[in-house]
Amino acid sequence: MDEHVADPYVQLAQRSGYRSRAAFKLLELDRRHRLLKPGQRVVDLGAAPGSWSQVAAARVGARGSVVAIDLLPIEPIAGVVTVQGDLRTAAGLAAAQPHLVEGGIDLVLSDMAPNVSGVAAADAARAADLVSTAADFALRYLKPTGVLVVKMFHGAGFEESLRLLRSRFGTVAVRKPDASRDRSPEAYAVASRPVAA
User: Which of 9, 105, 144, 163 has the most C-beta neighbours closer than 10 Å?
Assistant: First the structure.
């Protein structure tokens, strides 16, 4: 807890009005890859508590749209449509469907992470499943020029997930933002040019 409170990104997030320090991961990825532009349609998977949606809404502006989806409830965010549901289920997808346009989304963001059990093989399988879920969603909803940003975890299953993304997107870059804690195995894949099924 002391480390969290003393974390400079936590402090900066509080001063900047972001709901979590994760905002700075997306801001850094955006600076490097120019992901967010005015007027875009963006979907944020695993959005709670909502800091990535906050960043996206500010960048796409009133002409754009942001849909935030999570298993957990998300407190309202100006300029963001929030949906509570599990995209891996028919009911969850049905709840989100009215706010989605197949083949019409510019950017899919996924900061989804599994609930950690402590069993390495099970946790790796859950993490890989979330990457696959995000990729499936992106291929259905992204424009041909669209981009997927998806959280991954180094370790068992990482290379398999990377191969999956490379088989489905023309370009895949892996980044670890400065705002990611050094000890964290997380990284983000920035995948563009989705390949038609």
Answer: 105
Structure tokens at 42: 């963006």
Task: Report residues of the chain scoring pLDDT below 70.
Answer: 1-17, 197
Domain boundaries of the chain, sorted by first residue = 2-194
Closest among 172, 96, 86 to 129, alpha carbons compared: 86
Task: Check if the beta carbon of residue 154 is closer than 8 Å to that of residue 162.
Answer: no
Active site residues per annotation: 151
Q: What is the pLDDT of residue 114?
A: 87
- Residue 191: alpha-carbon gap to chain centroid: 12
Q: Are 64 and 39 in contact (CB under 8 A)?
A: yes
Kindly report the pTM of this predicted structure: 0.91
C-alpha–C-alpha distance, residues 162 and 3, integer Å: 31
2-194 CATH: 3.40.50.150
Q: What is the pLDDT of residues 79-114, one digit of tens each?
A: 999 999 998 899 999 999 999 989 999 999 999 998
Whole-number Cα distances in Å, 45 to 15, 21, 69, 90? 25, 17, 5, 16
Q: How far is CA 69 from the centre of its chain?
A: 10
Q: Tell me the one-letter amino acid at 173.
A: A
Query: What is the H or E stretch that residue 54 is in?
Result: helix 51-60
